[in-house]
Amino acid sequence: MNVILDLKYVVLVEEDIGNLLRSSKIILHLAPWNEGQLSRPPVKNLSSFIKLAFSDGKLSHFKECIQKMLQERSWETVAVHPSILHHAPTTFRSGIVGIERRLQAKVENNSSNINIAFQDMQNLIDMAKDMVQLANVMSNKIKDRQGDISEDETVKFKSYLLSLGIDDPVTRNSCSSNDVFYHQLAKEIASFLLKAISDTGGLMAMSDAYCRVNRARGLELLSPEDFFKACNYMEKLNLPIICRKFDSGVLVLQLQSKTDSLLEKEVSRLLQSRDKLTALEVSQEFQISIVLAQERLYFMERNGLICRDDSVRGLVFYPNFFSSSA
Amino acid sequence: MEFTWPWEYDFPPFFTLQPNLDTQRKQLEAWRKLVLDYCRHNKIFVLDVQESISLFQNKAIDRQLSTEGINQVLESLLEYNQIEWCDKAKKQCLVYWKNPQEWGNLIYRYASDKGMTNTVCTFYELTAGDDVQNEEFAGMDQSLLVKALKTLEATNKAEIIMFGGNEGVKFF
């Protein structure tokens, strides 16, 4: 059984010296019992003192300890500790009210988090604009003093900067109508991709173009639909890039100057030097994707320029000797 | 004499049915010529589709025309009246590297050259006799022979007659 005694009721500690017949004891004299002072229901004890007996010589040590504690009266200082005062009310938050309060606190916390997060996003958009400006300034500077760094480095660095982003992307908000939006967008896409498409043999798959444009636009992302619609306006606007669909359904953006006969000539020349061609070889030679390489070969096959050898080793294209021999 | 394969036989796309119809038309033309030349060279009057599979493959370049391709070639031959199916299952066909009319004329010239007009000779004599071994129609399939002779009948140059279980022909 545990017996608890608050030290604050102890007024005096006294040692009862023993003799041959009885052992030494410690007598704790207690303050008179007072109901108002109790924080919890006491076991009623009407005695004014307690005697403690010790079996093995711990008596003097215990007496020292308890006297020290009584002198310090440390329970009083603990009672006024602020953290304990603060904690005290939370212990009462139980039941339905407590749960409701906790939920409400959580909601408030979340909404403040969201606010902060969106503030960050706005910052990021602002920053992105600055970054694009910075990139433009830097590329202009490089243009001005081209002599300082080697030609090769300049070109490389400039291409990085240019691919960094689109300055002031066209948005739906900035346009008066959908039509204007698509027109503007078509122009933006065409001017942004012109160099990239020229570098990749005059053709670029629609999906690649979409990714590039969206990367450059940073946070003003385009939906695939908007992008597609804008691309369909390109031919009408007489832009240097047009959108076309291969018979297989593959959509590409193509340089207007890159006519089909030009494409055919390029592949034919390659075919002459190699006797036979696979889509992979064409894609490697012209730095285009395999899908596009395939499309070019199919296109030439449809025009009767080449013929296919479809075996377990894959699809290989040969010059159309059937036609030329006739 | 060894059969000389055409250049197409070593051209891998020859063994892939070309999807471009213009190209395919020329490809089938080449196939028709190959089949007829091959049969003429080997004196094949009846082509068994299953057995002639080696004609449609080139082991040296490890290519083989697909079943669909073979069917297309045969369809094309049929369209140009260069084969005729012997059975509805389309397992065998007569190959007309000469058509029945040409065969008829050839046989009739042979018969008149040999002074065989107004005499009766059996089918066996015409296709397997000692005298015809050097003729082109030696070993000719009987059904083809009948077709050839019927073209002669139509122009009153011959008459097919039956005697004692044997079949024969009388040239006029």
Write up this protein.
The complex is a heterodimer of chains A (326) and B (172). Chain A is an alpha+beta fold. Chain A folds into four domains: 7-87, no CATH class; 138-167, no CATH class; 168-255, Winged helix-like DNA-binding domain superfamily/Winged helix DNA-binding domain (Arc Repressor Mutant, subunit A); 260-325, Arc Repressor Mutant, subunit A, CATH 1.10.10.10. In chain A, 54% of the residues lie in helices and 13% in strands. The termini of chain A are far apart. The relative contact order of chain A is 0.05. The longest helix of chain B has 21 residues, at 21-41. Chain B has two domains: 7-95, Arc Repressor Mutant, subunit A, CATH 1.10.10.570; 100-171, Arc Repressor Mutant, subunit A, CATH 1.10.10.10. Chain B is built from five helices and eight strands; from the N terminus they run H-E-E-E-H-E-E-H-E-H-H-E-E. In chain B, helix 3 crosses helix 5. Chain B has 172 residues and is an alpha+beta fold. In chain B, the strands form three sheets. Chain B has a three-stranded antiparallel sheet with strand order 1-5-4. A three-stranded antiparallel sheet of chain B has the order 6-8-7. Chains A and B meet through strand 7 and helix 12 of A and helix 1 of B.
